Amino acid sequence: MHFLFPAILFAGAAAAGNPAEEGTLWTRDEARIVFNDLGCNGCHDIEETRIGPAFRDVAAVYEGADAVAVERLRLKIQRGGAGTWGQVPMVAYPRMSDEQARRIAIWILAQRESGASGDDRPK
Ligand code: HEC
Fold this sequence. Notes:
Layout: H1 28-38, H2 55-62, H3 67-79, H4 98-109
Helix pairs in contact: 3-4
The structure holds heme C.
């Protein structure tokens, strides 16, 4: 499965630092609590495509939590919008803080390593 992405690099992404060194990665259980409270799980699942893409697929496409990917997903979460995965728009969460959106983005990008079936990492 291939996805084409517009080659958009957001200004300021380079200033985001290396998220892996910030110690902000949540455990799966901690993140699940946030997802349930915020309602992300109404449209997203880790392994299954629902209205929005499966987070495992998001993680596989971006191939890791580098600063550019984190910044891109942070902006998507806060601003919403369509066109990356299809025509259905993601709702915006404009009141979410930068830090919270960044932490969620980092967690989503780590889901490729969550041990879900179907990925290509060594078991
Ligand atoms: C009403 C349904 C809905 C809800 C609720 C929702 N999303 Fe989405 N989400 C979508 C859709 C649809 C897309 C695909 C958008 C696109 O194609 O650009 C998406 C895309 C995404 C992406 C991938 C962005 C990209 O550019 O690749 C991330 C990450 C994401 N959502 C995170 C979240 C988080 C975190 C929450 C909760 C705070 C959330 N979503 C709540 C529907 C939803």
